[in-house]
Amino acid sequence: xxxxxxxxxxxxxxxxxxxxxxxxxxxxxxxxxxxxxxxxxxxxxxxxxxxxxxxxxxxxxxxxxxxxxxxxxxxxxxxxxxxxxxxxxxxxxxxxxxxxxxxxxxxxxxxxxxxxxxxxxxxxxxxxxxxxxxxxxxxxxxxxxxxxxxxxxxxxxxxxxxxxxxxxxxxxxxxxxxxxxxxxxxxxxxxxxxxxxxxxxxxxxxxxxxxxxxxxxxxxxxxxxxxxxxxxxxxxxxxxxxxxxxxxxxxxxx
Amino acid sequence: xxxxxxxxxxxxxxxxxxxxxxxxxxxxxxxxxxxxxxxxxxxxxxxxxxxxxxxxxxxxxxxxxxxxxxxxxxxxxxxxxxxxxxxxxxxxxxxxxxxxxxxxxxxxxxxxxxxxxxxxxxxxxxxxxxxxxxxxxxxxxxxxxxxxxxxxxxxxxxxxxxxxxxxxxxxxxxxxxxxxxxxxxxxxxxxxxxxxxxxxxxxxxxxxxxxxxxxxxxxxxxxxxxxxxxxxxxxxxxxxxxxxxxxxxxxxxxxxxxxxxxxxxxxxxxxxxxxxxxxxxxxxxxxxxxxxxxxxxxxxxxxxxxxxxxxxxxxxxxxxxxxxxxxxxxxxxxxxxxxxxxxxxxxxxxxxxxxxxxxxxxxxxxxxxxxxxxxxxxxxxxxxxxxxxxxxxxxxxxxxxxxxxxxxxxxxxxxxxxxxxxxxxxxxxxxxxxxxxxxxxxxxxxxxxxxxxxxxxxxxxxxxxxxxxxxxxxxxxxxxxxxxxxxxxxxxxxxxxxxxxxxxxxxxxxxxxxxxxxxxxxxxxxxxxxxxxxxxxxxxxxxxxxxxxxxxxxxxxxxxxxxxxxxxxxxxxxxxxxxxxxxxx
Lengths: 254, 585
Description:
The complex is a heterodimer. By secondary structure, chain A is an alpha/beta fold. Chain A has helices spanning 40-47, 69-74, 91-101, 106-119, 135-147, 165-180, 192-198, 216-223, 228-236, 241-253; strands at residues 2-11, 14-24, 29-33, 55-60, 63-64, 76-79, 153-157, 184-188, 201-206, 209-215. Helices cover 41% and strands 24% of the residues of chain A. Chain A binds chain B through residues 11, 16, 41-42, 45, 48-51, 70-71, 73-74, 76, 78, 80, 82, 84-88, 97-98, 100-103, 106, 129, 131-132, and chain B through 17-18, 20, 23-24, 27, 30-31, 34-35, 38-41, 120-121, 123-132, 309-310, 312-314.
């Protein structure tokens, strides 16, 4: 079970995230939503252990993650927002590096890498340098690196970014299956349609503060609106989208 | 036997790389040799580890070969040189090898300046993995140490063996065994000294300066350091004579090359009594910079690497200078929107990309060092600056500088900057309508003509009068114009946007041609110019007119012969075998 307890983070005194509390149990998929600058990435960095909270704590299976960060990271699979990989390594070399640093047994590592490359449709490109990969291919490499050690906790930050339709469909079904297997999944995204289909629970953040949290049905009930798009707009939108679109058209013709 | 040793070594290496720490250290080593931070495959010079090491090692070997004539008893006999002491004569060459070792190791370190400390990419890839931070810290330190030792060995490998062979070839083998380790020790120590001194400098600046200011200053500092190191190399022509001269010159005590020279010569009992006190200083300075670098590494590592995720959320602008030429000048110089757009794009790309600025700055720095050397040489040979006609060296100095700037920029134009972004040019620009040569020529001459007119013209007028100054500068403007045009022959690319660098295919020929061009600018052209100046005030203008007429004729011929002028964004190498397509005739 992953628990965030009153998580807060400030940069130079300015709060980025304030008092965010949530729990994800095995088998649950938490959709984490919020507009740009709402504190989503900061929360992700705190629960992955990259960033120390100013206040509050992240616990995994009852223990604070910072007590033994290395042990916690062994159980963690993380797909960051930017596919910032080493362009001079091949896809195979990159995963070998990640697997070795994770301390995976060599034979298991190579067997899984080979199968994953096949399943993610990267096998023909496994010995090409990452510099030659498209954005979608890089994203698939990141997904393999997050899954290959069979982690208990998965944290995805915009995982569908750049994926083609087939890969995105496979990925969505994969997340469902992983949830059914009892994995704990934290899913941060802007794509409301996917979040609505995938997640069992939702958390909406606005200016670093939690504005809605609960099961998908509970959040809909809270807003009184039928779709997630309307619910999201209800909680976080600060400007009239239609009016802004009209204004842009007017400027184009001015 | 050898085969089984190699197999054993390979197995040992593989088993070592299965351990996370050594895998990480190996990763940091390969990262230091790789392209850097850009995701673009073609963004860097594209040289592999082997090519980099070979490029660093090769000049030492060539120079040793050139020195053969100096130490060969047969050639000395042919020149009737009887009184020759190899140890005494080796002072200037030893100095050169030390200056070379310091400069090349220093420049290689400066080129890798950004990769020495782990960056955002490392953090994003390594921090989420179950690797303790101290392991990342130590693995990177091991990688840095390995690279320092590798650079030091590589730069000096050939010369450290063959130069002592040359010096001691008429002596006993025991003399070789005594001289070789002492010389090798000196050059290796010099390499390590400069590597760690620069490393300590980067770390100290990172510690002392705010991050935004450090990023802004970093590029200018790197270009300046490259110029200083090239200047240090060029001291090889002057300093050995100053060391031999009676009465110690005060500036010599500040040169690291002299410290290490005295150190290695003191080991073979050949130290100069005037400077022998500097020998222990070299060893102490090396130990000092290693300790300084280690201390700075520990502090800056914990201060910067650990804080990277916090910095990711705080956007830092580099604070680039905004420049724009006045509208009236733009209308005169840049004839259409295509030229105006591409001119601004090329200038900004040049000034805002580290690799491009660094290389262009290095060429300009080399030009500055060479032209200063020519001027210094002219002054030390007591040429008067007050004669009616200046000596050829005084005429050559600005031309040599201009030559290096133009050639350097032309080379840098070939290096793509963020190639994936060139879709914007491909999508907007009309490939058949626009001509690149006039634009690229204006870009090249932007960096030469202003200082020729604003600085060189009044300087020549001050020493030799306005008539000669105007003639000389007009001649230089014409020569640089023709040079730019020659280098841009059949040029069909927007600078920095094309994928394949033609220089890779014909690097050797181009280097030889540029070497010959340098000789022409340093000696042949100034001598010819001087001979025309001596003939009277009208001779040089007539020559200029003839050169211009020849250029016009050449351009016309070239245009008739070469019809394809459309822009290209993906250059391809010339085929190894050319098909004549005779069936089309």
